[in-house]
Each structure stands twice: as structure tokens, then as C-alpha cells.
Design brief:
The protein is an alpha+beta fold and 125 residues long. It has one domain: Immunoglobulins (Immunoglobulin-like), CATH 2.60.40.10. It is built from 1 helix and 8 strands; from the N terminus they run E-E-E-E-E-E-E-E-H. The strands form 2 sheets. It has a 4-stranded antiparallel sheet with strand order 1-2-6-5, with no helix packed on it. The chain has a 4-stranded antiparallel sheet with strand order 4-3-7-8, with no helix packed on it. The longest helix is centred in the last third of the chain and has 26 residues.
Length: 125
């Protein structure tokens, strides 16, 4: 059984790209399953690179992935079902509850407390 890993290269112009690496340079081209909500994603392609044991994986963003909430695409080896990786898109209303929004709010509150503390220090000196 061949062992593969997946490294993200970039995510631009509606296409996610990753590099599939084989543990053995003589490994066969992997069969990859790409899915969203347990349904196959159309248009995913694998192409050989100049180096043995490396393949470029390109996954176009399906229209059903664009919308409110968090959508995650799962990339797995088709033969064994082993998960190689995933990527997510977050958009719309779900961002209000997102952890990053909470961290931004905490930063704003910390800045407010720092200003109040400095003002208190100046007034009591």
C-alpha cells in the first residue's frame, strides 16, 4: 500500500491547489476522492510534476460551497479511504460567531481597558 501526504500550495481564483507526495518515489499515481457534504466534487484533477512521487491536485470550488456558514471539502485516498487533507471556506452570517470575531472583540475591549487604566494612572499621580 502506498502512503501519500498532501501539502497545500495555494487557494486562488476559485481553485484550491495542493501537492500530493508519495513516501516512495516509485509509487503509482494516487486515486483521490474529493467530497463536499459526502458528495463528490466535480472537476478535481491530478497531474504529474517534474519530480517522481509528486502530483499536483487542483480542486475547483463548487458553487454549492459559496454561501453562509462553514463549508469543508474533504480530500481522501479513494482506495483506502484515508484522509489526506481538507480545506474550508467561511462566509456570511457564520462569521459573527467565528472565533476570530471573538478575538477581535477581545482586542477592542483590551484596548479600551488600557486607555482607561492609563487615564486612571494620570489622574491619581
Amino acid at each position: 500500500m502506498d502512503t501519500y501526504t498532501l501539502e497545500k500550495l495555494r487557494f486562488a481564483s476559485g481553485v484550491w491547489e495542493g501537492l500530493i507526495l508519495a513516501a516512495d518515489a516509485e509509487a503509482r499515481t494516487p486515486q483521490v476522492a474529493v467530497s463536499l457534504y459526502d458528495r463528490p466534487v466535480d472537476g478535481a484533477s491530478i497531474s504529474e510534476t517534474d519530480e517522481a512521487g509528486r502530483w499536483l491536485l487542483r480542486v475547483p470550488i463548487p458553487p454549492e460551497m459559496i454561501g453562509d456558514g462553514v463549508q469543508t471539502v474533504l480530500i481522501s485516498e479513494a482506495d483506502s479511504g484515508v484522509t489526506l487533507g481538507s480545506f474550508s471556506m467561511i462566509s456570511g452570517e457564520a462569521l459573527g460567531d467565528d472565533l476570530r470575531a471573538e478575538v477581535a472583540l477581545l482586542r477592542e475591549e483590551l484596548d479600551m481597558l488600557k486607555r482607561a487604566f492609563r487615564r486612571h494612572c494620570l489622574e491619581t499621580s
